[in-house]
Amino acid sequence: MMEQRTVHHPILAKAQRLGRLIQQAEEVRRFRAAETQVEKSARVQGLIDEIKRKQKELVHAKHYQKTKYIRQVEADLDRLNAELDQLPIVREYQQSQVEMNDLLQMLQQAIADTVSKKIEVETGGEAPGGCGSGGPCGCR
To answer: One Pfam family of this protein, by short name (predicted)?
Structure first.
């Protein structure tokens, strides 16, 4: 069994602070609030359960090649998904997911841009081949 080591590095402490700041962001607060509303909504949960049942029915119908029944179940699923997507609570949840994802992508890009500006990366020309060890493959 591999032994798990705790790595102490100043960057990790700053990453943890950044994580705490992200948790306090308005986008994250809105997402969590919307998520809680969705989880507590009997209507939303009922639709989700019904969609899951219909998906299982569809798998069985496809397995037994029941073409007419497949079309019926697919139509039921389309109707249920449309009904779910039209609920204001679900729309708010989906919008908050998009906003939170945008925030995280923006942070990822900012970190990547900052790192790439500070670290020289070999560009242009041919990328070196081999392992670089000069071992059995003969590269250097």
So the answer is: Com_YlbF
